[in-house]
Design goal:
CATH topology of one domain: Rossmann fold
CATH superfamily of one domain: Creatininase
Strand order of the largest sheet: 1-3-2-4-5
Number of strands: 9
Number of helices: 9
CATH class of one domain: Alpha Beta
Strand content: 5-15%
Radius of gyration: 21 Å
Order of helices and strands: EHEHEHEEEHEHEHEHHH
CATH architecture of one domain: 3-Layer(aba) Sandwich
Distance between the termini: 68 Å
C-alpha cells in the first residue's frame, strides 16, 4: 500500500471532524524528514496527516530553548488532538531529541544532524527589531483553513521586514498558540497558556544572551494576545536593557482601524473570527484555500454595552464564555461579504502599521538607553 500525506493545516474543521480517528497525525520538529521512512515506521497506513512543523526551539534549529520547555508545549499540542479522539498522534523528531514524550514520538534522521541550521536571526541583525510572528492552527468556520492565522501573520511579518529591511528582521512564523475554547470544534490545537509563556520567555532569554535587544511579538490569533502581554511584562523586568513589545492582533491600530472602517461592508460583529477581514485576506493570499461556497455568516453574538465581538473588540469587560454560545459553525462574522481586493488593502495597511511600530520600538529603545547612559534616576546608582 502506498501512503499518501496531507497537510493538516489546509483542512477546515468539518474535514478534521470527518477524519477516521485512527488516522496518524504527525507534528514534526522542522522539515525535510524522509517521508517514505516515516510511512514505514508507522506500518504503511493509507494516509498520514502532517501538521505544520515547529520551525525552531530545538537543538539544530538555529534557535534552541531548554528541552523541558519545548517538551511541555509539544505535549500540550499533541494532547489537543488526543482529546479530539485521535488515537495515533506523534511528534517527529531527530533521534537525539526525546523531550520526555515517550511513546508519543517517532525518531527519524533529520538534515540538522549533519548540517545544523545557521543561527536565526543572524548576528548581523543584532541592531534590528526582531519580528516574532505567532499564528495558530485552529478552526475558522466551514470555509477557511486551520492555517488562517499563520498565513496572515506570516504575510504581515515578512511584508514588514521587506518594507524596512534596515530596521527589522523576521523569524519564521510559529504556527501554534493558545485556544482555551478548543473543545467546541474539532481540529483546534492548544499549546497551553503557561507552557506558551514559558516557551516565548525562553526564546527571548536566548536572543538576549546573543546580544539582541529589540523584539516585537506579533500575533495573528486573538487567543495568544493576553499571554503575550504577560511575556513582554516578564521580559521587561528580566532584561531591563531591552525593549519587548506586543499588540492586539494586527490591522487594529492607528493605520489598520481606519482602513477597516473605510472599506468594510459588514456592520459591527462582521469581523469577529473567520469573518469579513480574515476571509478577505485569505482570498488575497491563498484563494485556493478559501471555500466561499461553504461560508455561513453568523453575527448573532450575545452583545451588551460593555462586551461584544468584532476585530477590534469593544467594551470594558473581558470574558471568555464558551464559543458554542454564539456560533454553530465556528465563525463570528460575515465572511460572505469579503473580497480579495479589500484583503489586499487591509494587508497593506497592516504592514504599514507594523512598520510604524518598528520605528517606534527603535525610538523607545534609543531614548531609554540614552537616559540610562546619562545616569538618569536610579540608573545613576547602579552598576
Amino acid at each position: 500500500m502506498i501512503t499518501t500525506f496531507f497537510p493538516y493545516e489546509h483542512l477546515t474543521w468539518p474535514e478534521v471532524a470527518a477524519l477516521p480517528r485512527h488516522t496518524p497525525l504527525v507534528l514534526p520538529l522542522g522539515s525535510g524528514y524522509p517521508l517514505a521512512a516515516l510511512a514505514e515506521a508507522l506500518q504503511q497506513p493509507a494516509q498520514i496527516g502532517l501538521l505544520p512543523p515547529i520551525p525552531f526551539g530545538w537543538r539544530g534549529s538555529g534557535l534552541a530553548v531548554p528541552e523541558g520547555v519545548l517538551g511541555a508545549l509539544l505535549a500540550n499540542l499533541l494532547d489537543s488532538l488526543r482529546q479530539d479522539g485521535f488515537s495515533h498522534v506523534l511528534a517527529l523528531t531527530p533521534p537525539e531529541i526525546e523531550l520526555g514524550l515517550g511513546p508519543g514520538r517517532v525518531a527519524l534522521p533529520h538534515p540538522s544532524q549533519h548540517h545544523p541550521a545557521g543561527a536565526i536571526p543572524t548576528d548581523h541583525d543584532r541592531d534590528k527589531v526582531i519580528l516574532i510572528p505567532i499564528g495558530h492552527t485552529e478552526q475558522h468556520g466551514h470555509h477557511l483553513p486551520l492555517a488562517t492565522d499563520s498565513l496572515i501573520i506570516d504575510a504581515i511579518s515578512q511584508g514588514t521586514a521587506n518594507a524596512v529591511p534596515q530596521q527589522a528582521a523576521s523569524l519564521p512564523t510559529f504556527p501554534y498558540g493558545v485556544s482555551t475554547h478548543r473543545a467546541a470544534f474539532a481540529g483546534t490545537l492548544n499549546a497551553g497558556g503557561r507552557a506558551f509563556e514559558d516557551f516565548w520567555l525562553a526564546i527571548l532569554d536566548t536572543l538576549v544572551a546573543r546580544g539582541f535587544t529589540r523584539f516585537y511579538l506579533m500575533s495573528g490569533h486573538g487567543g495568544n494576545c493576553s499571554f503575550l502581554v504577560n511575556v513582554v511584562k516578564y521580559a521587561g523586568e528580566r532584561h531591563p536593557r531591552t525593549f519587548s513589545a506586543t499588540a492586539w492582533l494586527h490591522t487594529a491600530g492607528h493605520l489598520g482601524a481606519p482602513a477597516i472602517a473605510q472599506h468594510r461592508r459588514s456592520g459591527r460583529g462582521g469581523m469577529g473570527h473567520a469573518g469579513e477581514l480574515e476571509t478577505a485576506m485569505i482570498l488575497h493570499l491563498r484563494p485556493d484555500l478559501a471555500h466561499m461556497a461553504r461560508v455561513i455568516d453568523e453575527t448573532d453574538f450575545i452583545a451588551t454595552p460593555n462586551y461584544d465581538m468584532d476585530w477590534i473588540e469593544g467594551g470594558s469587560l473581558v470574558a471568555n464564555p464558551p464559543w458554542a454560545d454564539d456560533t454553530a459553525t465556528g465563525a463570528y462574522g460575515a465572511g460572505s461579504l469579503a473580497t480579495a481586493a479589500h484583503g489586499r488593502l487591509w494587508l497593506e495597511a497592516a504592514i504599514a502599521e507594523k512598520a510604524a511600530h518598528v520605528a517606534e520600538i527603535h525610538e523607545q529603545h534609543r531614548r531609554r538607553e540614552a537616559r540610562r547612559q546619562a545616569g538618569f534616576g536610579l540608573w545613576g546608582h547602579t552598576a
